[in-house]
Amino acid sequence: MGVIVGPRRFASFISRHVRVSRLRWLCTVAIAALPFLVTTTLLIIGYLFHAPGTAHAADYQAYGFRALNYSDIIWLYLRDQATVHLRPFLDYRLEYPPLTGGLIYALGFARDLRLYFALTYGVLSVCALVTVAALNGLPGTKRWYVTATPALILYTGLNWDLAAIAMLALALVAYDRRRDGWGTVALVLAIWLKLFPIVFLLSIVIERLRERRFRAAGTIVGIFIGGSLALNLPLARANLAGWGYFFTFNAGRPAEPSLWTLIPSLGNARIDGISLGLLVFGTLVLTAFAARAKCPVTLPLGGATLLWWLGINKVYSPQYGLWVYLVLALVGLPSGWWRGFILLDLAYYYASFQILYTASFAAPYSTGPLTSWQATYLLEPLVAVRLVLLLAMIGWVIGDTWIRSAERSATRVPPSRQAPFATITRAWSLLTS
Questions:
Q1: Class of residue 19 by CB neighbours under 10 A (exposed 0-12, middle 13-18, buried 19+)
Q2: Looking at CB atoms within 10 Å, which of 247, 345, 374, 417 has the fewest?
Q3: Which of these, 150, 186, 147, 196, lies nearest to 317 by C-alpha position?
């Protein structure tokens, strides 16, 4: 016998159902928006942190080093006389890749320094939000490592790295969805904004070869070569010395706080040769290990190789910390690594700019024992800790990849169902079982 529901009871039921559905929808939207709200908050704080420097054009470096809010974006605008609209690589030398030069030139048409910095910061802020969104589309990543890092405050307005990071993140999403053409286009843009993403070109080609998708690997290499020639060849033909200054500048650049400043009595030429040899050797070792793995290696191989590069490079600028946070997010290291690197990164940021101010502007201390003390007892210990931490991160990535390979061999889980990264709990249980 059926139950007759009156109009009032039916209307009440519908009303309650609508309210519950709306509440669930609002909760879903709020949860989805939370990472972007956190990132936006940090970006706003970062702008307020760096923007006052635009009022100190006459003594910018002294002000920026003293206030610990220095920005290459502001300094290069002043140094290269952006108001004259000179063309980078053609009219003057620039120590950055072609696309970064193009970005600087395009935004340099702003009417003054304040607007130029605001526009540049806005572009980089969008890049940060794009990175967060892209990491959300990569399974197994920990996007909060990028979303909630204080580095967004310190480094978004310091240099242009976030533009390359955003392009790299989009490329990795496209590769994960087997859209290799679009992925390689984004990767080419990332590489010629900042050279670091080239390690992921190697890792994705290795992955496609392991999958026996030889045609896809060839397509990726072909698009990379074609895109790189299209971006670089016109500049090289117009002014070879100007285009090549990015490479010659970095080759002749003396070692800055890094492994090589901890080793005395090494000339710049020897440092270049040894560091290049170590980079090639480490990359080959990591590649050989990845080739034997029985799980996806695009992210762990690319991430570990990038960490190795940052560790043995003769220059480590403070904003390179953004790349470490990206790797931490991509390979899914436990949160303790993230928190530990934040503490180190903040200390290194303070120490590096404090010693720059002391050495350059804090007379009479610029040539006295204070500068030597800061280098010996403040900066160099942080450099050593960073090197150890980067090596330990690489070791974790190798161990985690080996564990996932063992899991896949033992369980024969189809690739489509295999979790991209094992958690530290699972790894520990396997090691101790």
A1: exposed
A2: 417
A3: 196
Is pLDDT of 418 > 50?
A: no
Residue recorded with tokens 């139950």: 3
Which of the two residues, 420 and 150, has the higher pLDDT score? 150
Query: Residue 359 pLDDT > 90, yes or no?
Result: no
Please state at what angle helix 321-331 crosses helix 335-360, rounded to 10 degrees.
170
Q: How far apart are CA 178 and CA 13, in angstroms?
A: 46
Q: What tens digit of pLDDT does each residue of 61-71 get?
A: 999 999 999 99
Strand partners, 88: 92
pLDDT of residue 413: 44
β partners of residue 92: 88
Query: What is the reported pTM?
Result: 0.88
Supply 52's token pair: 């006052």
Q: Is 328 left (phi over 0), alpha (psi -120 to 50) or beta?
A: alpha
Tokens of 56: 């100190």
- Return the ∠ at Cα 201 (arms to 424 and 252), rounded to 5°: 105
Per-residue model confidence (pLDDT) at position 212: 93
- Residue 127: pLDDT over 80: yes
As a residue count, the chain comes to 433
| Phi, then psi, of 255 in degrees rounded to 5 | -65, 135
Q: Which two tokens stand for residue 241?
A: 């010395």
